[in-house]
Specification:
Blueprint: E1 5-9, H1 16-25, E2 33-38, H2 43-54, E3 57-64, E4 67-73, E5 89-90, H3 92-100, E6 106-109, H4 113-118, E7 125-126, H5 129-132, E8 145-148, H6 153-164, E9 170-173, E10 183-187, E11 196-201
């Protein structure tokens, strides 16, 4: 596919591919196409969610080796809309207090499986953002769900998705795992498989 601009985001982790994409998109004219090259597997769901949120058109993704090439078409002024944020948020400290108090809630981790394996909030359920739409039936719409990712960007998109589907009590954990100072657990083995690990603390 021919692109008017190619943006190199290889080696960058969330939220940087989206941050760079936003800035580069401002320089394009309506109807022009951008190719975003990324190695972060989570960038696929990030790009799709951002495009849906802003009115730009996600055209597709081509995978070449470990590089994902995402294609976006800039919307015309009448198609574009201001980027929105989910209004209901909690801090990592507030979530930690709720968990310590034994409050009934679900922690949903929407990072990629490898990110989840290397360190997660104990008891957090893993559903990558890219799979969330197809697994909404696993949740009750009245459940209290706190959604976490790496920095709070992916989880914001997840909150918006659930809210659009009628979920009434979802909250975005601001700063994500970057802001989490509570206990964590990991699921790793020396042979590259997975197993339950002990709990520790994030650095």
């Amino acid at each position: 596919m021919k692109a008017n601009q190619t943006l190199d985001c290889k080696g960058l982790a969330c939220p940087m591919p989206i941050v760079k994409t936003k800035k580069a998109m401002d320089q394009l004219e309506a109807g022009q196409v951008m190719e975003v090259q990324a190695t972060d597997k989570g960038s696929l769901a990030d790009i799709q969610g951002w495009a849906r949120n802003t009115g730009h058109q996600y055209l597709g993704t081509v995978e070449e080796g470990n590089v994902l090439k995402h294609y976006l078409r800039k919307s015309s002024p009448n198609e574009a809309r201001d980027e929105k944020k989910h209004p209901h948020v909690v801090s990592a400290e507030e979530l930690q207090r709720k968990l310590a108090a034994g409050e009934k809630l679900t922690v949903l981790d929407v990072r990629e499986p490898a990110e989840y394996a290397f360190g997660r909030i104990p008891g957090a359920v893993s559903i990558p953002l890219g799979e969330l739409a197809s697994r909404i039936h696993e949740w009750n719409r009245d459940d209290e769900i706190h959604i976490v990712c790496r920095t709070g960007n992916r989880s914001d998109l997840a909150c918006q998705l659930l809210a659009e589907k009628g979920f009434t009590n979802v909250k975005n954990v601001e700063a994500g795992m970057y802001g989490w100072t509570g206990p964590t657990e990991k699921r790793l083995s020396k042979k590259g498989g997975t197993q339950d690990g002990g709990s520790g603390r994030t650095e």
